[in-house]
TrEMBL record:
Keyword Lipid metabolism: yes
Domain HotDog ACOT-type span(s) in chain numbering: 1-52, 114-229
Organism annotation: Donacobius atricapilla
Name of the protein in question: ACO12 thioesterase
Highest taxon of the lineage: Eukaryota
Gene Ontology terms, MF aspect: acetyl-CoA hydrolase activity; carboxylic ester hydrolase activity
Subcellular location: Cytoplasm
Catalyzed reaction equations: butanoyl-CoA + H2O = butanoate + CoA + H(+)
GO cellular component: cytosol
Pathway of action: Lipid metabolism; fatty acid metabolism
Gene Ontology annotations of biological process type: acetyl-CoA metabolic process; fatty acid metabolic process
Length: 240
């Protein structure tokens, strides 16, 4: 909240030949009570941008403390799980695309997911990009959270609170001058939480005229919502 002090600590946990895992821990300190608590933990995967066409091979990271050794070991397991997720979801997508395999919701009061669809278009300007001219990943995430929050609010009629972001992956870069189109829709509700899927497509001027988008990002954002008393609100069931 306004008036509190946020500390962001990052370190490389492990290097995998051409990629690395960076651990990010965010804590907040109350200036009045001096109390400090962790508000967010995340793990980001980076690759080094090569000067030429070849890939940049990274040197191994040498853990020092006991915590470093633990994170170093867990990094390889997180990588294994992450790569496994991709295979599992690809299989599910192939199976769900079979003819006649459709999910139907028979609940009487189910809300159509069409009601939750939100679309937004943003123009990438120089302040939105780094020194390479690529759009900041954090800027794209902020835009994604905005449309996802609006999508979730159409179900809870309140102000949704972001709980987690899953399978956030950059499939390609975007640049200054690109138009970014964000599409968000509620995928499903789980009593006190809701999952919103967001897809991001980029267009340069020529692609915009020809209607040839580049899929650059997708993610799944989970929200909860509370009332004035701080009690969790229940989300209605949805009909795809």
């Amino acid at each position: 909240r306004v008036g509190q002090i946020i500390s962001i600590r990052t370190k490389v946990n492990r290097a995998f030949k051409t990629s690395m895992e960076v651990g990010i821990k965010v804590t907040v300190q109350d200036v009045l009570t001096n109390a400090e608590k962790t508000v967010s933990v995340a793990y980001a995967t980076y690759v080094a941008k090569p000067v030429d066409a070849g890939k940049v091979e990274l040197k191994p990271v040498q853990p020092l403390s006991a915590e470093d050794h633990l994170e170093h070991s867990l990094a390889i397991e997180r990588r294994r799980i992450r790569l496994g997720y991709v295979q599992v979801f690809q299989k599910l997508m192939q199976e769900s695309n079979k003819e006649g395999d459709f999910y139907t919701c028979e609940e009487k009061d189910a809300v159509s997911t069409e009601h939750t669809h939100v679309q937004s278009t943003e123009l990438v300007l120089p302040p939105h990009a780094n020194h390479h001219g690529n759009t900041f990943g954090g800027q794209i995430m902020a835009w994604m959270q905005t449309v996802a929050s609006i999508s979730a609010s159409r179900l809870c009629h309140s102000h949704p609170i972001l709980k987690s972001v899953n399978m956030f992956k950059f499939w390609g870069p975007s640049f200054v001058g690109d138009r970014l189109v964000f599409n968000a829709i509620v995928n499903n509700t789980f009593h006190n939480s809701v999952e919103v899927g967001v897809r991001v497509e980029a267009y340069n001027c020529e692609e915009w005229i020809k209607d040839q988008p580049r899929h650059i990002n997708s993610a799944f954002l989970t929200f909860k919502a509370v009332n004035d008393k701080g009690e969790l609100l229940t989300f209605p069931r949805v009909k795809p």
